[in-house]
Amino acid sequence: MRKKSVLACSACGSRNYSTMKNSSAAGDRLEIKKFCKTCNSHTAHLETK
Ligand SMILES: [Zn+2]
């Protein structure tokens, strides 16, 4: 079963991306470097519930 997660910029809090992650990865909080148009740079994006 897959779960939908939202990735939010750790710098400004904007929710820029959504992702589907496998339940096997549940428990680990994702942290992915992605481009934030609000910050206009690449920042760490964290999974939100
Ligand atoms: Zn940002």
UniProtKB/TrEMBL annotation:
ATP-binding found in the keyword field: no
GO MF entry, a single one: structural constituent of ribosome
InterPro entries for the chain: Ribosomal_bL33, Ribosomal_bL33_sf, Ribosomal_zn-bd
GO biological process: translation
GO cellular component, one term: ribosome
Pfam families given in the database record: Ribosomal_L33
Name by which UniProt lists this protein: Large ribosomal subunit protein bL33
Species: Priestia endophytica
Organism lineage string: Bacteria, Bacillati, Bacillota, Bacilli, Bacillales
Domain of life, source organism: Bacteria
Xref: SUPFAM superfamilies: Zn-binding ribosomal proteins
Family the UniProt entry places it in: Belongs to the bacterial ribosomal protein bL33 family.
